[in-house]
Predict the 3D structure of the following.
Amino acid sequence: MEISRHWRLRQQRYGLVGEVCPHCDAKIFPPRDVCPSCSGEAKTPYVFSGKGEVYSYTIVHDPPEGFEANAPYAVALVKLDEGPILTSQLTDVELAEVKIGQRVEMVTRKLREDGDERGMLVYGYKFRPTLATAGA
Amino acid sequence: MSEVYIAGVGITPAGEHWERSLRELAFAALEAAANDTERLLGGRAPAEALFAANALAGQLSGQAHLGVLIADFAGLRGIEAVNVEAAGASGGAAIRQAYIAVASGQVETALVVGVEKTTDTIGGRVNAATATAGDSDFESVQGATPAALAGLLMQRYLHTYGLEHDVFADFAINAHANAKANPNAMFRNTITRDAYARAGAVADPISMMDVAPECDGAAAIVLTSRPTAVRVVASAQATDTLALHDRPDLLGFDAAQLSAGRAYKTANLGPDEIDLFELFDAYTVFAALSLEAAGFAERGQGWRLAVEGQIGRDRRIPIQTFGGLKARGNPIGATGVYQVAEVALQVRGEAGASQVPNARVGMAQCIGGIGANIVTHILQTA
């Protein structure tokens, strides 16, 4: 049980809240308070759009404890439109159709289960292929 | 600053040791190193410090505090002792700490013992434990194991350079071919190109033939300021971002470049003067990236050395000379100690059937996480 830890990360897990550097305007995710581009202090919150594309991907067949029920599943490096890359599972997707460059968008899903039926359910971001919108 | 030499080395078989505990494995390696030291120096060299290297015992065996566990069991009560943890680079990092201790003059002789036990638990728990080397909050929580991160790296490598998966086959084939002569290797079977192509997926495009087997094992070395046949001419460490996704240049393997670069500068040597390179082939793609980062190949060309047959024991840059991680086995925190012990045997000319002809200068490099912490040592015949 790691309740406080997942609670602490709720803005990132559910809202993709990162930071923007007030010195060089770099967008930062996950938040790290020191800008990786200019090393200046960067603590200004920034909400990402949740849109991006697959930069690399893998299909996991040999899962760690807590992820057995999902396997096989796709894990991707997603390059957000604002610049940063994050690691995320892909969901609502045919595994054979995942490819580099594919457009994806953030959704909230269950990430894992901690142990037995009294264990915690950890929710957070995953990415799915961008849905076509009306008129698009 | 004192010069630092390697006295004895002790290597025990890597594999599944159901019958032996962490402390027993570590003690066997220390005993072997002590006997080797006695043979080389004509007497025992009392050590003033012990550096253990272990990554996972706290998680897999419920046992932390290995410095004391091992010192106590080995009859070294009272000695200064500490465990060094740097994931897969623990072994190299412990050797570096011992090197600094001896070079500084604080101690004349230091023991390093790497030990790992991955078979006390099975399956998903081992994967969850090894995944703690990554970013727990932003990688592991997504179900990204070390193999998955290596899969992301390999996929991007193949995409960027326009290659097919089979360009990595010869790293696995070379490892198994070299392990045949090593009685301490876990796998001594031949693998064929066909078997490589048919291997089951672990984390696409990574297959079972791209992944080194995690296993039990222990190795030890004795570092001393008393001159011996083998001098440590460089010891260097460098870090990169913890998470793969935070790297501006995914395929640069920057910590490997920095670490090897610092080692070359200290030793005043370059890649052309290295007779063998024990690289960290936990995944075949690491082998290609390490060859590039250490200056043996241009970017995107590391695989070519394998495909063109340049990595065998009598070729341009011998790697995996005792089987590498892929076939000798990967006892995670201990692996860096195995590598340096193997290089010591090579430059002494005592590698037996594994001997690289005329080896005088050898380099060992181990990797923690997905290229996040990289330690390089260069040994030279004194």
Summary: The first strand of chain B starts at residue 5 and ends at 11. Chain B is about 35% helix and 20% strand. The mean pLDDT of chain B is 97.
